[in-house]
Amino acid sequence: MADQEIHLELLLGKQVLDSTGKAIGRIEEVRAEPQGEDWVVQEYLIGYAAILERLSAWTIGLGILHLLGARKIHGGYTVPWEKLDLTNPDQPRLRCSLAELKAVAETETR
Predict the structure, then answer these.
(1) Residues 66-82: what's their mean pLDDT?
(2) Distance in angstroms (rounded) separating the CA atoms of residues 86 and 95
(3) Total count of domains within the chain
(4) Which of 69, 89, 105, 110: disulfide with 49, CB 3.0–4.6 Å?
(5) What are all long-range contacts of 4-8, with beta carbons under 8 Å and residues at least 24 apart?
């Protein structure tokens, strides 16, 4: 496969489909690490919990959700870069099952 340049800002907000075509959430955050002079994508965060992470508001967000009556918060996945097919950047797809992914946050509120 040839290298393809994808602008990350255009990926944010894109709906991600699982292997059956079911929507699992939107790309809300991208984590990358420096390697020499470049930055290399390590993983994508998808779903509602990823929005709070992106805004660095997880603690505040949990407090607000608790006040609104939420007891268990789950709504996102951490997707390693190699498990997201970006062949068509307008329709990203998982290369694995949901069961293989880690939850962004699965937290019980008190």
Answers:
(1) 73
(2) 10
(3) 1
(4) 105
(5) 4/86, 6/86, 6/89, 8/41
Residue 74 pLDDT exceeds 80:
no
Q: Does 26 reside within a domain? A: yes
In 3-state terms, what secondary structure has residue 46? strand
| The two three-digit tokens of residue 107, written as one number | 């937290």
pTM (2 d.p.) = 0.72
Higher-pLDDT residue of 6, 46: 46
Q: How far apart are CA 64 and CA 18, in angstroms?
A: 30
CATH number, residue 31: 2.30.30.240
Sheet strands side by side (includes 102-103): 84-85, 93-94, 15-17, 23-35, 38-47, 76-80, 102-103
Which residues contact residue 21 at a Cβ distance below 8 angstroms, ignoring those fewer than 6 apart?
A: none
For Cα atoms 108, 82, 52, give the angle at the middle one, nearest 5 degrees.
30
Q: Is residue 35 part of a domain?
A: yes
